[in-house]
Specification:
This protein is mostly beta strands. It is built from one helix and 25 strands. Strand 8 and strand 9 form a beta hairpin. The two termini are about 30 Å apart.
Length: about 290
């Protein structure tokens, strides 16, 4: 199922599967900003990761007295069909709840609401987790949107750069296998931008920690066109694409990180975004502006 939102600046399409933002078209020039989900390259548009981000050690979890093997990367949220809750012209809310399938990985009762709302040139992607269980639980969560480059046929991927709102010396957690190894590396010293180059993601994503910037965006050099993400409230922000010359660019604000290569299998020892008690809710939002 697809839900269409519109205001004076944007046309936006939201999928029920994964509650993903499938399409964002800027009316002024007709540019499609979201990755097309080509399964031969990467079959998603803007998935959400829940109840954990990244991989878990040896694909194994020990949680609430059960052992789970062959745990999939990034959790189950991105593959679930989300139920309709409400819609207006410029906003839609979808929801999932726990079921027999989710209990095989995450044996807690929960409700998860996703709201996509247009606010001028900005799309707000709001996530709310509700604990409907009788015990507290922890969880991880993160965003994984992919933005198409180039914006048009007159440009190439090398005409783009990641640009911070403040000067940064980005320190990254090393995870070449998708699991943390306890090492760190730098993407530069006193920089405001990271140019897009061939091979920049040949090893894996770059997980930056404790950035000072309020925003991180994909900017087209020599023009005013950009996709700008508000990352201020997130302790981790990843950039990622496929190896070789990137066909899209991901800006991924996360509230948690993958497991360590030699870490514990125990759920309660995994890095978490929050712990919420029965009846409590927790919410986060990613705001992305499509600038001209």
């Amino acid at each position: 199922m697809e839900y269409v939102l519109e205001n004076e600046f944007l046309y936006v399409t939201v999928l029920s599967k994964g509650a993903q933002i499938k399409s964002v078209v800027r009316k002024s020039d007709g540019v499609e900003h979201m990755w097309n989900g080509n399964p031969e390259v990467w079959g998603y548009h803007s998935p959400v990761m829940f109840p954990y981000t990244g991989k878990v050690t040896d694909g194994r979890l020990e949680i609430r007295g059960q052992v789970v093997e062959n745990v999939p990367q990034h959790g189950f949220h991105r593959t679930m069909d989300h139920a309709f809750v409400s819609q207006t012209e410029d906003a839609v809310t979808l929801a999932i709840s726990d079921n027999e399938s989710t209990h095989k990985i995450f044996p807690y009762h929960f409700r998860f609401l996703t709201t996509v709302r247009l606010e001028g040139e900005t799309v707000s992607h709001i996530l709310t987790v509700e604990n409907t269980d009788h015990e507290p639980f922890t969880f991880g969560i993160g965003y994984h949107p992919a933005y198409m480059i180039p914006f048009d046929s007159d440009h190439t991927p090398e005409d783009y750069e990641f640009r911070f709102s403040h000067m940064e010396s980005p320190i990254c957690l090393d995870a070449p296998t998708g699991l943390l190894n306890g090492k760190y590396y730098s993407l530069g010293t006193n920089i405001r931008s990271i140019p897009v180059t061939e091979g920049m993601f040949d090893i894996n994503s770059h997980c930056m920690v404790n950035l000072r910037s309020r925003t991180l965006g994909v900017y087209e050099k020599g023009s005013n066109r950009a996709v700008v993400c508000d990352i201020e409230q997130f302790p981790y922000c990843l950039i990622w694409s496929k190896p070789g010359m990137p066909p899209f660019l991901c800006i991924e604000p996360w509230h948690s990180v993958p497991s360590n290569e030699t870490g514990s299998y125990a759920w309660e020892e995994k890095a978490a975004a929050a712990c919420i008690a029965p009846g409590e809710t927790w919410s986060t939002a990613m705001r992305t502006s499509f600038v001209r």
